[in-house]
Write a structure and sequence with these properties.
Layout (H helix, E strand, L loop, with lengths): L3 E2 L5 H6 L5 E6 L4 H16 L4 E6 L4 H6 L7 E6 L2 E7 L4 H8 L2
């Protein structure tokens, strides 16, 4: 499955009403650590079938960034059944990201 570009328009349908957990990556084009993290998130999106993966560009989707109290990026949020179950900030390895998603 490929990464879903999340916006205020599709967030409820793609994330809050999702039948499976969703990993949401809050990022920005100018953020060096986000650029490092991006390929790892993309790779997992292609490999995983039990988790949806989406990205929120904080510059384009400020309302979502504020809603989830994003103060530092990259910020990863895991949402299950419409509820935030985990949050983490900073660059993660693929193994760390897998562990984060399956906690």
């Amino acid at each position: 499955m490929s990464v879903i570009n999340l916006t205020t328009e599709n967030f409820e349908e793609e994330v809050l009403n999702a039948k499976k957990p969703v990993l949401v990556d809050f990022w920005a084009t100018w953020c060096g650590p986000c650029q490092t993290m991006g390929p790892v998130v993309d790779e997992l999106a292609q490999e995983l079938t039990d988790v949806k993966v989406g990205k929120v560009n904080v510059d384009e989707q400020m309302d979502l960034a504020q809603q989830f109290k994003v103060v530092s990026i990259p910020m990863l949020i895991l949402i299950k059944n419409g509820e935030v179950t985990a949050k983490d900030i900073g660059v993660k390895s693929k193994d760390e990201l897998l562990a984060f998603m399956h906690q």
